[in-house]
Amino acid sequence: VEEFKDVIAVAPEGPELLVPKERLTDSETLLLYLLATHIGYKLGKLDKETLTKEELQAKLGKSMKITSTRLGELFKDGKVVKTEEGNYKITTIAIKQLHGQMQSKFK
Fold it and tell me: How far apart are the C-alpha atoms of 19 and 39, rounded to whole Å?
């Protein structure tokens, strides 16, 4: 949690980014929102640790086609999993990889 305190925040309304989206790739943006959701759930601030494709699309601010394509790539790379309900959550390995990426990007 501490490692990402300057990058993401968990508000009662849901996950938020503390860095400009323009400095992130679409995939990084999606992963950071999923990470913030995961952390918020683990801390008891959110009632679920997943986001729907529609929620992710709204956060990303891109078309559903772009969102679906990026989520498909992340799923194929093992960075997100899709639940039985069709929602998405971040994988443990993606959290570790994202930590390294964000450290080098936002030093």
Answer: 17
pTM of the model: 0.93
d(CA 9, CA 85) in angstroms, rounded, equals 25
Answer for the pair 100, 7: CB distance below 8 angstroms, yes or no: no
* Kind of pairing between the strands at 88-90 and 80-82: antiparallel
> How far is residue 84 from each of residues 9, 42, 50, 52, 88, measured CA to CA in Å?
27, 20, 11, 12, 10
pLDDT per residue as tens digits for the range 44-79 = 999 999 999 999 999 999 999 999 999 999 999 999
